[in-house]
Amino acid sequence: MKVNHWSLPNGATCVVADIEQSTLTCIDFWCKGGSLYEKEDEEGMAHFLEHMIFKGSKNLKEGEFDLRIESLGGSSNAATGLDDVHYHVLVPPEKIEQGLNLILELLLFPKIEKEAFEVEKEVVLEEIAQNIEQPDEIIYMKLLKGCLTPHRYSKPILGDEKTVKSINPRQMKQFHKNHYVGKNCTLSIAGELPNEIISIVSNSKLNELKKITKEANICTKTTFNRGYKKETIPRLEGGRILKAWKLPPAKEQILILGAEIAATILCEGKSSIIVKKLREEKRIIESIDIDLQILEEGGLILLDVSCQKENLKLAESEINSILKKLNTDLVADKDLERAKKLVINNIYFGLELSTQIASTLGNQALWGRHQSLLKSIDDISYWTTSRLNELIFPLFNPENAFTLIAEPEK
User: Fold this and answer.
1) CA–CA separation, 7 and 213 (whole Å)
2) CB neighbours of 352 closer than 8 A, spacing ≥ 6?
3) Options 3.90.920.10, 3.90.1150.10, 3.30.830.10, 3.40.1190.20; which CATH number does 227-408 get?
4) What's the chain's Rg over C-alpha atoms?
5) How far apart are CA 357 and CA 191, in angstroms?
6) Is the pLDDT at 212 greater than 80, yes or no?
Protein backbone atom coordinates (compact mmCIF):
# COMPACT_ATOMS: atom_id res chain seq x y z
CA MET A 1 0.00 0.00 0.00
CA LYS A 2 1.49 3.33 -1.10
CA VAL A 3 0.84 6.37 1.13
CA ASN A 4 1.47 10.01 0.13
CA HIS A 5 1.37 13.10 2.39
CA TRP A 6 1.47 16.76 1.34
CA SER A 7 0.16 20.19 2.34
CA LEU A 8 -1.71 22.89 0.41
CA PRO A 9 -0.73 26.60 0.48
CA ASN A 10 -3.60 27.32 2.91
CA GLY A 11 -2.14 24.86 5.46
CA ALA A 12 -4.58 21.99 4.90
CA THR A 13 -2.89 18.59 4.99
CA CYS A 14 -3.64 15.73 2.60
CA VAL A 15 -2.94 12.02 2.78
CA VAL A 16 -3.87 9.30 0.28
CA ALA A 17 -3.41 5.54 0.47
CA ASP A 18 -3.71 3.44 -2.68
CA ILE A 19 -5.31 0.05 -1.90
CA GLU A 20 -5.45 -2.06 -5.05
CA GLN A 21 -8.77 -3.77 -5.82
CA SER A 22 -10.55 -2.08 -2.92
CA THR A 23 -14.30 -2.28 -3.53
CA LEU A 24 -15.04 1.15 -2.08
CA THR A 25 -12.91 4.23 -1.56
CA CYS A 26 -13.24 6.32 1.60
CA ILE A 27 -12.93 10.11 1.56
CA ASP A 28 -12.49 11.30 5.15
CA PHE A 29 -12.36 14.98 6.18
CA TRP A 30 -10.94 15.76 9.64
CA CYS A 31 -11.08 19.06 11.53
CA LYS A 32 -9.73 20.31 14.86
CA GLY A 33 -13.25 21.35 15.74
CA GLY A 34 -14.33 19.00 18.52
CA SER A 35 -15.95 20.06 21.77
CA LEU A 36 -12.52 20.98 23.22
CA TYR A 37 -12.72 24.18 21.16
CA GLU A 38 -16.05 25.38 22.49
CA LYS A 39 -16.34 28.43 24.74
CA GLU A 40 -18.43 28.34 27.90
CA ASP A 41 -21.58 29.54 26.11
CA GLU A 42 -21.01 27.21 23.15
CA GLU A 43 -21.16 23.79 24.80
CA GLY A 44 -22.70 21.35 22.30
CA MET A 45 -21.84 23.60 19.34
CA ALA A 46 -19.43 21.19 17.60
CA HIS A 47 -21.95 18.33 17.61
CA PHE A 48 -24.86 20.61 16.63
CA LEU A 49 -22.77 21.96 13.72
CA GLU A 50 -22.15 18.38 12.57
CA HIS A 51 -25.95 18.03 12.27
CA MET A 52 -26.30 21.36 10.42
CA ILE A 53 -23.53 20.55 7.95
CA PHE A 54 -25.88 17.96 6.41
CA LYS A 55 -28.73 20.48 6.09
CA GLY A 56 -27.48 21.95 2.84
CA SER A 57 -24.85 24.32 1.52
CA LYS A 58 -24.46 27.25 -0.84
CA ASN A 59 -24.99 24.97 -3.85
CA LEU A 60 -26.77 21.96 -2.32
CA LYS A 61 -30.37 21.98 -1.12
CA GLU A 62 -31.29 20.19 2.10
CA GLY A 63 -31.27 16.43 1.42
CA GLU A 64 -29.57 16.82 -1.98
CA PHE A 65 -26.16 15.70 -0.72
CA ASP A 66 -27.51 12.36 0.53
CA LEU A 67 -29.43 11.72 -2.69
CA ARG A 68 -26.42 12.49 -4.88
CA ILE A 69 -24.03 10.36 -2.78
CA GLU A 70 -26.53 7.48 -2.92
CA SER A 71 -26.85 7.90 -6.69
CA LEU A 72 -23.07 7.36 -6.91
CA GLY A 73 -23.52 4.08 -5.04
CA GLY A 74 -22.08 5.56 -1.87
CA SER A 75 -22.90 6.40 1.73
CA SER A 76 -21.87 9.00 4.30
CA ASN A 77 -21.41 9.44 8.05
CA ALA A 78 -19.85 11.74 10.63
CA ALA A 79 -18.72 11.78 14.26
CA THR A 80 -17.88 14.53 16.75
CA GLY A 81 -15.29 13.86 19.43
CA LEU A 82 -13.69 15.80 22.25
CA ASP A 83 -10.67 16.80 20.13
CA ASP A 84 -11.89 16.66 16.55
CA VAL A 85 -14.75 16.00 14.17
CA HIS A 86 -14.69 14.01 10.95
CA TYR A 87 -16.99 13.38 8.01
CA HIS A 88 -16.60 10.59 5.49
CA VAL A 89 -18.14 9.28 2.32
CA LEU A 90 -17.72 5.83 0.81
CA VAL A 91 -17.93 5.71 -2.98
CA PRO A 92 -16.92 3.35 -5.79
CA PRO A 93 -13.35 4.13 -6.95
CA GLU A 94 -14.49 5.57 -10.28
CA LYS A 95 -16.67 8.14 -8.44
CA ILE A 96 -13.92 9.66 -6.26
CA GLU A 97 -13.89 13.08 -7.92
CA GLN A 98 -17.68 13.49 -7.71
CA GLY A 99 -17.73 12.30 -4.09
CA LEU A 100 -14.89 14.66 -3.15
CA ASN A 101 -16.61 17.67 -4.74
CA LEU A 102 -19.86 16.89 -2.92
CA ILE A 103 -18.39 16.48 0.57
CA LEU A 104 -16.20 19.57 0.25
CA GLU A 105 -19.15 21.65 -0.98
CA LEU A 106 -21.13 20.54 2.05
CA LEU A 107 -18.35 21.13 4.58
CA LEU A 108 -16.90 24.40 3.34
CA PHE A 109 -20.10 26.31 2.58
CA PRO A 110 -22.89 25.25 4.98
CA LYS A 111 -26.04 27.42 4.83
CA ILE A 112 -27.07 27.21 8.51
CA GLU A 113 -30.46 28.77 7.75
CA LYS A 114 -32.68 29.79 10.66
CA GLU A 115 -35.68 27.58 9.87
CA ALA A 116 -33.64 24.39 9.43
CA PHE A 117 -31.53 25.42 12.44
CA GLU A 118 -34.56 25.58 14.76
CA VAL A 119 -35.91 22.25 13.50
CA GLU A 120 -32.56 20.52 13.99
CA LYS A 121 -32.11 22.10 17.42
CA GLU A 122 -35.16 20.11 18.56
CA VAL A 123 -33.55 16.92 17.20
CA VAL A 124 -30.36 17.62 19.18
CA LEU A 125 -32.33 18.44 22.34
CA GLU A 126 -34.20 15.15 22.02
CA GLU A 127 -30.87 13.34 21.64
CA ILE A 128 -29.66 14.99 24.86
CA ALA A 129 -32.89 14.08 26.67
CA GLN A 130 -32.57 10.43 25.64
CA ASN A 131 -28.89 10.35 26.55
CA ILE A 132 -29.29 11.64 30.09
CA GLU A 133 -31.84 8.88 30.80
CA GLN A 134 -29.33 6.11 30.06
CA PRO A 135 -27.66 4.65 33.19
CA ASP A 136 -24.37 4.02 31.35
CA GLU A 137 -24.23 7.62 30.16
CA ILE A 138 -25.10 8.98 33.61
CA ILE A 139 -22.26 6.96 35.18
CA TYR A 140 -19.76 7.91 32.48
CA MET A 141 -20.49 11.64 32.74
CA LYS A 142 -20.28 11.54 36.56
CA LEU A 143 -16.89 9.86 36.22
CA LEU A 144 -15.57 12.47 33.76
CA LYS A 145 -16.92 15.31 35.88
CA GLY A 146 -15.27 13.87 38.97
CA CYS A 147 -11.81 13.28 37.55
CA LEU A 148 -11.38 16.00 34.89
CA THR A 149 -13.21 19.12 36.14
CA PRO A 150 -12.65 21.97 35.28
CA HIS A 151 -11.18 20.94 31.89
CA ARG A 152 -13.46 20.92 28.84
CA TYR A 153 -12.97 17.14 28.57
CA SER A 154 -15.20 16.82 31.65
CA LYS A 155 -18.23 18.20 29.75
CA PRO A 156 -20.60 16.19 27.50
CA ILE A 157 -19.98 16.43 23.75
CA LEU A 158 -23.72 16.91 23.21
CA GLY A 159 -23.80 19.89 25.59
CA ASP A 160 -26.84 20.27 27.80
CA GLU A 161 -30.36 21.59 27.30
CA LYS A 162 -29.54 25.10 28.52
CA THR A 163 -26.43 25.65 26.40
CA VAL A 164 -27.90 24.16 23.19
CA LYS A 165 -31.11 26.20 23.52
CA SER A 166 -29.04 29.39 23.71
CA ILE A 167 -27.01 28.74 20.53
CA ASN A 168 -28.04 30.80 17.49
CA PRO A 169 -27.16 30.57 13.77
CA ARG A 170 -24.82 33.59 13.93
CA GLN A 171 -22.73 31.92 16.66
CA MET A 172 -22.59 28.68 14.69
CA LYS A 173 -21.47 30.41 11.50
CA GLN A 174 -18.70 32.12 13.47
CA PHE A 175 -17.63 28.81 15.05
CA HIS A 176 -17.42 27.26 11.56
CA LYS A 177 -15.48 30.26 10.25
CA ASN A 178 -13.02 30.14 13.17
CA HIS A 179 -12.28 26.42 13.16
CA TYR A 180 -12.90 25.05 9.65
CA VAL A 181 -9.74 26.69 8.29
CA GLY A 182 -6.79 25.32 6.34
CA LYS A 183 -4.33 24.55 9.12
CA ASN A 184 -7.05 22.86 11.20
CA CYS A 185 -8.14 20.43 8.46
CA THR A 186 -6.95 17.19 6.89
CA LEU A 187 -8.33 15.29 3.91
CA SER A 188 -7.62 11.56 3.91
CA ILE A 189 -8.51 9.18 1.06
CA ALA A 190 -7.99 5.41 1.10
CA GLY A 191 -8.98 2.86 -1.52
CA GLU A 192 -8.28 2.17 -5.17
CA LEU A 193 -7.09 5.52 -6.53
CA PRO A 194 -6.60 7.01 -9.99
CA ASN A 195 -3.05 7.92 -11.04
CA GLU A 196 -3.93 11.62 -10.92
CA ILE A 197 -5.32 11.56 -7.34
CA ILE A 198 -2.78 14.10 -6.03
CA SER A 199 -3.74 16.52 -8.78
CA ILE A 200 -7.47 15.94 -8.14
CA VAL A 201 -7.11 16.74 -4.43
CA SER A 202 -4.67 19.61 -4.92
CA ASN A 203 -7.02 21.33 -7.38
CA SER A 204 -10.21 20.68 -5.40
CA LYS A 205 -12.33 23.04 -3.30
CA LEU A 206 -10.04 22.17 -0.37
CA ASN A 207 -8.02 25.18 -1.57
CA GLU A 208 -10.95 27.40 -0.62
CA LEU A 209 -10.41 26.82 3.08
CA LYS A 210 -9.21 30.11 4.51
CA LYS A 211 -5.74 30.49 5.99
CA ILE A 212 -5.79 30.59 9.78
CA THR A 213 -5.56 34.12 11.17
CA LYS A 214 -4.95 33.27 14.82
CA GLU A 215 -4.59 30.15 16.92
CA ALA A 216 -7.64 29.04 18.89
CA ASN A 217 -7.32 30.05 22.54
CA ILE A 218 -8.11 26.84 24.43
CA CYS A 219 -7.24 25.45 27.83
CA THR A 220 -4.64 22.77 27.10
CA LYS A 221 -3.62 22.01 30.67
CA THR A 222 -5.53 18.99 31.94
CA THR A 223 -5.87 18.34 35.63
CA PHE A 224 -6.61 14.88 36.97
CA ASN A 225 -8.48 14.69 40.25
CA ARG A 226 -8.00 11.60 42.39
CA GLY A 227 -10.96 10.72 44.55
CA TYR A 228 -13.62 8.27 45.67
CA LYS A 229 -17.37 8.65 45.27
CA LYS A 230 -20.51 6.56 45.69
CA GLU A 231 -23.65 7.26 43.66
CA THR A 232 -27.11 5.74 43.30
CA ILE A 233 -28.20 5.57 39.65
CA PRO A 234 -31.81 5.25 38.46
CA ARG A 235 -32.64 2.18 36.31
CA LEU A 236 -29.18 0.69 36.92
CA GLU A 237 -29.16 -3.11 37.01
CA GLY A 238 -26.65 -4.45 39.52
CA GLY A 239 -23.55 -2.69 40.81
CA ARG A 240 -20.72 -0.99 38.94
CA ILE A 241 -17.15 -0.13 39.86
CA LEU A 242 -15.48 2.47 37.66
CA LYS A 243 -11.90 3.59 38.02
CA ALA A 244 -10.09 6.22 35.97
CA TRP A 245 -6.38 6.97 35.78
CA LYS A 246 -4.44 9.59 33.89
CA LEU A 247 -3.17 8.44 30.47
CA PRO A 248 -0.34 10.29 28.65
CA PRO A 249 -1.32 12.54 25.69
CA ALA A 250 -1.99 10.94 22.30
CA LYS A 251 1.44 11.94 20.98
CA GLU A 252 3.07 9.53 23.47
CA GLN A 253 2.36 6.61 21.16
CA ILE A 254 4.86 4.16 22.67
CA LEU A 255 3.45 4.65 26.19
CA ILE A 256 -0.11 4.25 24.94
CA LEU A 257 0.92 0.99 23.26
CA GLY A 258 2.32 -0.16 26.61
CA ALA A 259 -0.96 0.74 28.31
CA GLU A 260 -2.86 -1.30 25.69
CA ILE A 261 -0.65 -4.32 26.42
CA ALA A 262 -1.20 -3.88 30.17
CA ALA A 263 -4.98 -3.60 29.73
CA THR A 264 -4.94 -6.79 27.65
CA ILE A 265 -2.89 -8.67 30.27
CA LEU A 266 -5.42 -7.64 32.91
CA CYS A 267 -8.79 -7.94 31.24
CA GLU A 268 -8.95 -9.40 27.73
CA GLY A 269 -10.06 -13.03 27.56
CA LYS A 270 -10.73 -15.78 30.09
CA SER A 271 -7.03 -16.27 30.84
CA SER A 272 -6.35 -12.58 31.58
CA ILE A 273 -5.36 -11.91 35.19
CA ILE A 274 -8.50 -10.22 36.57
CA VAL A 275 -11.05 -12.15 34.48
CA LYS A 276 -9.49 -15.50 35.41
CA LYS A 277 -9.35 -14.79 39.14
CA LEU A 278 -12.53 -12.80 39.78
CA ARG A 279 -14.97 -14.05 37.13
CA GLU A 280 -13.86 -17.58 36.26
CA GLU A 281 -12.56 -18.72 39.67
CA LYS A 282 -14.18 -16.62 42.43
CA ARG A 283 -17.28 -15.70 40.37
CA ILE A 284 -17.73 -12.35 42.10
CA ILE A 285 -17.88 -10.19 38.95
CA GLU A 286 -19.96 -10.50 35.79
CA SER A 287 -17.78 -8.50 33.41
CA ILE A 288 -14.75 -6.23 33.40
CA ASP A 289 -13.31 -4.02 30.70
CA ILE A 290 -10.40 -1.59 30.48
CA ASP A 291 -10.67 1.04 27.77
CA LEU A 292 -8.13 3.69 26.79
CA GLN A 293 -9.63 7.07 26.01
CA ILE A 294 -6.81 8.53 23.93
CA LEU A 295 -6.94 12.34 23.86
CA GLU A 296 -4.60 15.04 22.60
CA GLU A 297 -4.24 16.90 25.89
CA GLY A 298 -4.03 13.76 28.04
CA GLY A 299 -6.46 10.88 28.15
CA LEU A 300 -7.85 8.32 30.56
CA ILE A 301 -7.49 4.66 31.42
CA LEU A 302 -11.05 3.56 32.23
CA LEU A 303 -11.82 0.36 34.15
CA ASP A 304 -15.48 -0.72 34.28
CA VAL A 305 -16.72 -3.66 36.38
CA SER A 306 -20.25 -5.08 36.61
CA CYS A 307 -21.21 -7.26 39.56
CA GLN A 308 -23.99 -7.96 42.00
CA LYS A 309 -24.54 -5.12 44.47
CA GLU A 310 -23.60 -7.35 47.41
CA ASN A 311 -20.21 -8.13 45.77
CA LEU A 312 -19.14 -4.50 45.23
CA LYS A 313 -16.94 -4.19 48.31
CA LEU A 314 -15.22 -7.56 47.86
CA ALA A 315 -14.70 -7.07 44.10
CA GLU A 316 -13.16 -3.64 44.59
CA SER A 317 -10.84 -4.96 47.31
CA GLU A 318 -9.69 -7.84 45.09
CA ILE A 319 -9.10 -5.54 42.09
CA ASN A 320 -7.09 -3.10 44.21
CA SER A 321 -5.00 -5.98 45.54
CA ILE A 322 -4.21 -7.25 42.02
CA LEU A 323 -3.31 -3.76 40.79
CA LYS A 324 -1.00 -3.09 43.75
CA LYS A 325 0.87 -6.36 43.16
CA LEU A 326 1.58 -5.29 39.57
CA ASN A 327 3.99 -2.70 40.95
CA THR A 328 6.07 -5.29 42.79
CA ASP A 329 5.65 -8.61 40.95
CA LEU A 330 6.64 -9.16 37.33
CA VAL A 331 3.89 -10.58 35.14
CA ALA A 332 4.64 -13.96 33.61
CA ASP A 333 6.34 -13.97 30.20
CA LYS A 334 3.53 -16.14 28.81
CA ASP A 335 0.97 -13.49 29.84
CA LEU A 336 3.00 -10.77 28.12
CA GLU A 337 3.42 -12.78 24.92
CA ARG A 338 -0.28 -13.64 24.83
CA ALA A 339 -1.18 -9.95 25.27
CA LYS A 340 1.23 -8.87 22.54
CA LYS A 341 -0.34 -11.30 20.08
CA LEU A 342 -3.83 -10.02 20.88
CA VAL A 343 -2.74 -6.39 20.49
CA ILE A 344 -1.09 -7.18 17.15
CA ASN A 345 -4.28 -8.91 15.98
CA ASN A 346 -6.35 -5.88 17.00
CA ILE A 347 -4.04 -3.58 15.02
CA TYR A 348 -4.48 -5.73 11.91
CA PHE A 349 -8.26 -6.02 12.44
CA GLY A 350 -8.44 -2.23 12.75
CA LEU A 351 -6.91 -1.76 9.31
CA GLU A 352 -8.96 -4.17 7.19
CA LEU A 353 -11.33 -1.65 5.59
CA SER A 354 -10.73 1.51 3.57
CA THR A 355 -12.79 3.44 6.18
CA GLN A 356 -10.45 2.28 8.96
CA ILE A 357 -7.31 3.13 7.00
CA ALA A 358 -8.59 6.56 5.95
CA SER A 359 -9.64 7.31 9.53
CA THR A 360 -6.30 6.28 11.04
CA LEU A 361 -4.25 8.19 8.46
CA GLY A 362 -6.52 11.23 8.69
CA ASN A 363 -6.26 11.43 12.46
CA GLN A 364 -2.48 10.97 12.37
CA ALA A 365 -2.04 13.68 9.74
CA LEU A 366 -4.39 16.12 11.51
CA TRP A 367 -2.30 15.95 14.67
CA GLY A 368 1.12 15.74 12.98
CA ARG A 369 1.85 12.10 13.77
CA HIS A 370 2.99 10.83 10.38
CA GLN A 371 4.09 7.23 10.77
CA SER A 372 3.69 3.83 9.17
CA LEU A 373 0.28 2.26 9.77
CA LEU A 374 2.04 -0.77 11.21
CA LYS A 375 4.64 1.09 13.29
CA SER A 376 2.93 -0.07 16.50
CA ILE A 377 3.65 -3.67 15.51
CA ASP A 378 7.35 -2.81 15.14
CA ASP A 379 7.27 -0.98 18.48
CA ILE A 380 5.67 -3.83 20.41
CA SER A 381 9.03 -5.58 20.91
CA TYR A 382 10.09 -2.59 23.07
CA TRP A 383 7.80 -3.77 25.84
CA THR A 384 9.26 -6.26 28.30
CA THR A 385 7.93 -7.26 31.71
CA SER A 386 10.49 -5.03 33.42
CA ARG A 387 9.61 -2.01 31.25
CA LEU A 388 5.91 -2.52 31.94
CA ASN A 389 6.73 -2.57 35.67
CA GLU A 390 8.79 0.57 35.41
CA LEU A 391 6.70 2.72 33.04
CA ILE A 392 3.14 1.39 32.78
CA PHE A 393 1.87 -0.50 35.80
CA PRO A 394 2.46 2.52 38.10
CA LEU A 395 -0.23 4.26 36.01
CA PHE A 396 -2.71 1.64 37.30
CA ASN A 397 -1.95 2.24 40.98
CA PRO A 398 -5.36 2.32 42.77
CA GLU A 399 -4.11 5.15 44.99
CA ASN A 400 -3.84 7.37 41.90
CA ALA A 401 -7.35 6.60 40.62
CA PHE A 402 -10.66 8.36 40.69
CA THR A 403 -13.13 5.66 41.76
CA LEU A 404 -16.89 5.75 41.29
CA ILE A 405 -19.06 3.10 42.93
CA ALA A 406 -22.52 3.01 41.37
CA GLU A 407 -25.48 1.27 42.97
CA PRO A 408 -29.07 0.94 41.74
CA GLU A 409 -31.76 3.05 43.39
CA LYS A 410 -33.77 1.09 45.94
Assistant:
1) 17
2) none
3) 3.30.830.10
4) 23
5) 9
6) no
